[in-house]
Amino acid sequence: MHLLIILVLFSSLAFDGNDGCKSDCVGDLVKIENVTYGNVVLPISELKSSLTVGVDNIPSFIIKGCSEFLIYPLLVLFNFSLRTKVFPEVWKQTKIIPVCKKGDAQNYKNYRPIAILSPFSKIFESIIHKKLYNQVKNIISTSQHGFIPKLSTTTNLFCLTDKIISSFDSGSQLDAIYTDFSKAFDSIDFGILLKKLQGIGSHVNLIVWLLSYLCKRSLYVYFYNAVSHEFTSTSGVPQGSNLGPLLFILFINDLTCVFKYSGCLLFADDLKLFGSIRYDLDSVL
Length: 285
Known about the structure:
Layout: H1 2-11, H2 37-46, H3 60-65, H4 67-84, E1 93-100, E2 111-116, H5 119-136, H6 153-169, E3 173-180, H7 190-199, H8 204-214, E4 217-223, E5 226-227, E6 231-233, H9 244-251, E7 263-267, E8 270-277
Parallel strand pairs: 1-4
Antiparallel strand pairs: 1-2, 3-8, 4-5, 4-6, 7-8
Helix pairs in contact: 1-7, 2-4, 2-5, 7-8, 7-9
């Protein structure tokens, strides 16, 4: 019932999904109809054999070791999830471990959260990620170098260097502004994200499934021997997930359409704006 209410709300948003970017629409509907036996085998083999456990207390090395007995049951569960458009509640539980990154360990600002998800969730997400990425990869902005196969901070820097050299060769300087979105992954609005996915041609069944995947996720903070009470995330893509980064770059994909008078390069949520400066007025633009 709650999912239907949210779906109605996001459908009524005054946002067309592509914000004027003509290249942002996939011709055919983006949909994920089923999972095959082979789809399940690969992500299990790619799991890291770790003793670390999430809220379900199941380490990944057990899943890898028992994979031949788990593949078919997981296949049934994954397809049932897609058919009913419901992501299992137990796989939406996240274990948060605060880790001191530097400085005074008594200051909470010096800690960063590490999210540990169920390995079953990560297997399922890996399958969905691959299927979704293969359908939307051609509409992802070429300015984006984060979470894209064969692209990296190195390719991002190479592109900027090429622009700098071209600008110098033409007798101009190149000015750049470096920005970073504050709490970018945590502040994504579910309704706007789903509306954007609708705008690129996502099938309603996929959107409803993603709504179930994103909403009502339970988080627990583990600190030494203490465990917090449950709290629920109301925005953002799941930290530590396989699917979250792809959803994020699709969310900000139309950002490049806004900058008509300057170039831009992205690495996930890091944005560089740049432009050739020949005259003083150029710097205003």
